[in-house]
Amino acid sequence: MKTEPLPEGVLAQRQEGLYSITPRVALGRITLEQLNIINSVVQEFGLSGVRVTAGQRLKLQGVPADRLHEVIRRLGPVGEFCKYYVQACPGTTACRLAMQDSMAMGTKLEEFLNTLSLPAKVKAGVSGCSMCCSESFVRDIGLVGKKHGWTVVFGGNAGKRVRIGDELAENLDEDEALRVIGAALACYEREAKQRERTARFVERVGIEMVRSSIK
Ligand code: SF4
Hints:
The chain has six helices and nine strands, in the order E-E-H-E-E-H-E-H-E-E-E-E-H-H-H. The protein is α+β, with helices and mostly antiparallel strands. 35% of the residues are buried. Iron/sulfur cluster (SF4) binds at residues 89-91, 95, 97-98, 102, 127-129, 131-133.
């Protein structure tokens, strides 16, 4: 029997017949309205709980299969899937060490990434200074705020084969940084194998291929 594909952002849990849903709360920012909706859905459907993930997202757990679509409907726009996660530190909105506005940059990057369909999972970390609290050098896309602008890093990974990302460009304003990221990802989308993360892709083809695509 052909099984129906799960909606984006829905994952089968280890326990049979239960699912988790990851609502779109970009950069871990949640409004009061979003919290109220999530809270009422958890109560109304008697869900087992909500977990904050490592990527600053929320996961609603314990959704029974027969109520999955109803829960998604009740979540409304909050239930939109956050395709590629972007982690950002507070930057100039709160941190005294910050050189750049990482929340604003992260918001633009998250919106941009969610328009793409890439060969594998892509994670991004946006840090407002060289302290790199958002672990920018071990993310597929990393941004580091410095005095004269953004440094773009590509191909990092913090998984079982750790890879430090390569710097592609520095001293960029927000639009220039997005252009460089867009060009690097276009190269990745064109040349990578299905499910090949950026770190493994760079190891296979060499960072010079990515660098030449951003010129
Ligand atoms: S990366 Fe820098 S700006 Fe961001 S929270 Fe850490 S110290 Fe502050």
